[in-house]
Amino acid sequence: SGCRPSGWHGAGRTASLGLMVDSDLLAVARGDAPADVVLTGGRVVNVFTAEIERVDVALWGTSIAGLGKGYRASRVHDLDGAYLIPGFIDAHVHIESSLVTPAEFARAVVPRGTTTVVSDPHEIANVHGTEGVRYMLEASEGLPLTVFVMASSCVPATPMSTAGAALEAEDLQAMARHPRVLGLAEVMNFPGAIHGDGAVLAKLEAFAGRPIDGHAPGVRGLALNAYVAAGPGSDHECTRPEEALEKLRRGLFVFLREATNARNLEALLPILRPANLGRVALCTDDRQPPDLLDSGGIDAMLRRILAAGLDPVDALRLATLNPAEYFGLRDRGAIAPGRVADLLVVDDLRSLRVREVWCAGRRVARDGAVVDWPEPEPPRLPSPSMNVSLGPDALVIPAEPRRARVIEVIEDQIVTGARVVEPRTQGGVVVSDPGADVLKIAVVERHRGSGRVGLGLVTGLGLRRGAMAGTVAHDHHNIIAVGVDDDSLRTAVTAVVDAGGGLAVAEGGEVRALLRLPVAGLMSDAPVETVRAGLDEVVQAARRLGSPLHDPFMALSFLGLEVIPTLKITDRGLVDVDAFRLVDLWV
Amino acid sequence: SGCRPSGWHGAGRTASLGLMVDSDLLAVARGDAPADVVLTGGRVVNVFTAEIERVDVALWGTSIAGLGKGYRASRVHDLDGAYLIPGFIDAHVHIESSLVTPAEFARAVVPRGTTTVVSDPHEIANVHGTEGVRYMLEASEGLPLTVFVMASSCVPATPMSTAGAALEAEDLQAMARHPRVLGLAEVMNFPGAIHGDGAVLAKLEAFAGRPIDGHAPGVRGLALNAYVAAGPGSDHECTRPEEALEKLRRGLFVFLREATNARNLEALLPILRPANLGRVALCTDDRQPPDLLDSGGIDAMLRRILAAGLDPVDALRLATLNPAEYFGLRDRGAIAPGRVADLLVVDDLRSLRVREVWCAGRRVARDGAVVDWPEPEPPRLPSPSMNVSLGPDALVIPAEPRRARVIEVIEDQIVTGARVVEPRTQGGVVVSDPGADVLKIAVVERHRGSGRVGLGLVTGLGLRRGAMAGTVAHDHHNIIAVGVDDDSLRTAVTAVVDAGGGLAVAEGGEVRALLRLPVAGLMSDAPVETVRAGLDEVVQAARRLGSPLHDPFMALSFLGLEVIPTLKITDRGLVDVDAFRLVDLWV
Q1: pTM for the full model?
Q2: What is the Cα–Cα distance from A357 to A299, expressed in whole angstroms?
Q3: Are A524 and A517 a contacting pair, CB within 8 Å?
Q4: Which value does ipTM take for this structure?
């Protein structure tokens, strides 16, 4: 399970979870000492009582000191009738999916109102193990965005893939001592939890009494009972209202998810009934720069919910008080004395246009742009992870006189279908059939130099020529590549290996586009705008090769996730997720 | 701060707060192994979604395994259309106020549906310190009632009284390691919290990130901001809707209280608005045997709330899911997989007549009477605490040519008024004036043999002759006595001293009635029915002496509580609670 990390012992969990009592803050709260800032003239949204209060809000240091009249301050800031609302909390996000470092992620989401995220660093953990988690914690230190971490429960997601590291219960317990580690991240090995797998139960027991997030797509009935009894307290994988309602009934918090490649909000709007509203939160899970920069994240979800007619304060609770309560974050989620001064100034409660963002008592963004933005020292990057050995026959699928399984991509979903076809063959080997949109797909193990390659077929990506490859392949993050011919495939794979990680499009021997992702092969160290342009470029290049998908790389990156139904591929081969086992290409 | 206790280290907090994962339970939940019991034919109240589900409920061991159809069991129990609801949680109670031991308290409350209480053992802690808390924990081990403990924050309540022990932050931290200790009990020293008193802040900091209960009668405005910023997360001292709403707005959970001597439910019904319903719970605080046995506790409160027209599931949440969430008790508060099988069978959701009570998977009461009731070994009692030295002039108040302060009893409230009168004098000393209902009141220090006696005057108890004395005197639990003449006073005080604690009524040299309370001078070791009869006897005896109050002993016992406005008395003298200082009898 790797070396035991040192340095998880932070300032103690109380620093982040409780309210450190400060007698100077109390003096300000009482009105006996001047505040740092008093926000006047605002309409303060009270998420406890669903009221709008016309009161002043006094800030001191990083905290809210009090609400009311009669506060003095060195700085009085008039809100001119605007609404003051609590900063948004994203209940579940993999920051790595933004393709940028935490600092750049923060610069993208904070101006739109997200001031706290509960992150699961399981992408980087699958590459670098505990060192990867430590990097994410260090890289998010001192940012205006508060980045909490859930200890990644499924690294690797299953034994059916090869990751760069494995995290055992004892590794997770060591992490759990860090003040920003809240609990156990999504327990994706739901069959393991349901069937009482020893290693899964050991992790669940290690986090008993702390938040444990679930991940149970389509799990219903008695299996759901077992999953809930095993410990998880939430789920963000619901796709239909009946499923979400059943999970609420059994006691799970439901996180509504609107990821770049898994958009479930619209379908789940019917669950927002008054009786349930206290047990629903919002999350973005995996969002790429174009979404983050153009439509937003939690703010965009709230706008959609408001447009559906939900009471504005009820809607705001989904992104403030509810996740705070679920995660036991008594220091945020509302505008109240002693809580952290993460505040948004918005013009109205429909458009939610964020005029100002205050993080920990400082105004850090105005009209969508950062101001007074801190630039903490970036941490040392983890060492490169690109250990690939690709033999000359590595991509060859010998033909057999049988039918073959084909992974079927469903746009905007991370679930896939499964088909069976007669594959096209040539000279005794299987080849891509772009006319029928049946293409070769390969997962090349990149962490351990094993030379292992999983090979299969996929439909729905729609390339007519060339190939694409990426080192982002949930969750094992081996190299995943799809192509019309082996030359293009090899060129694309080689391009990302040489770049130390990235996304590439190739045609024959030519690299058409390349986005470098040198941080664990998952993230760029460039500004988010630059990465967004680079991503647009590789996506456009893939679309020029014929893919009709709006983001073929995002689609590709989830074809390796062997915990999401139905048919997936890892370096070990095809996975029938419903049966939860490796299956042969041939039927 | 007393000796460091050993043995606080229990099985780890996770055992009580989280879900211990048990692979056998999962097998039952999945339907792969038979349950112990399946409850069929019931209407299961779902407090998560406010729905009634017609599903079976499978129990295994102490837990709920699952809900649904298809469960097998060695025992099938048909509920015949009755409602199945979660056991009630009393959010704040001093068990000692029941005048019986935890086992007898459980026998009184469990048949009426309370299966979990969050107790503050600060009565016994004021007498015996950590040994007293340990006694309560041991005495509640193995009972069908789950007794959680909040570490008593204010022992003594203030330096203005003499208690038998003092608990410092380090004592409380030691207690906090016990698996049934949840957090910090009501922070009654609200001026200390608001003004940043060092000892109070040390206790608050020691419990940062854990539940901290508040106690802030009448605290509003900026002072409330400071109190909330200091850390408490709840309040159960509201008497008016505006006060309760303000506390909700600032983020406090509001516990509605209906104690024997402080009945606030009726007045606070207006706060039960939809937006607030998730942040209100119910508590009994201090309830004596007649109330417990005749009208009940949480069940009686719920009946009143239901009669006011609240939706039944919303009402039930106040006593189930809401307190569970506030205290972070993920293992109870709802009927859901993996939660403890604390269940009530009720005929309807209006009368809430409890037909059956199941605790931890066993049926322990039926039609109001216990069945299959465990009789755990009673723990060793704490040593007697009655160290009194009463000199011949101890009860004498020398007259002065001034007016004197008089404590004014307000029936059914623990707040008092304050008056100023010209006292009756005789031979140079102040004497009681039964005609004007101004009587002498004395607090005799009983823990340390100091001989200290606080003397004052009281109106509203209404004795026409004789005296009454008791060793129950919140929270210091010295001897509190009121009387028309010094002979009677001395006889009553001597009676409770000789009994090792208790309540006594005397007239001249005769003891008219005596209820022995040998356990810390607070609790009897007799069955609750016997204690109830004994209490009836002393109360009737006091009423025969002229008191018009329905329970003059309960009223008397709160006249020593120097954290409840307005004028109180301790062994150190009169306390002006609003000014939070000792004041002279003479104005």
Answers
A1: 0.92
A2: 13
A3: yes
A4: 0.91
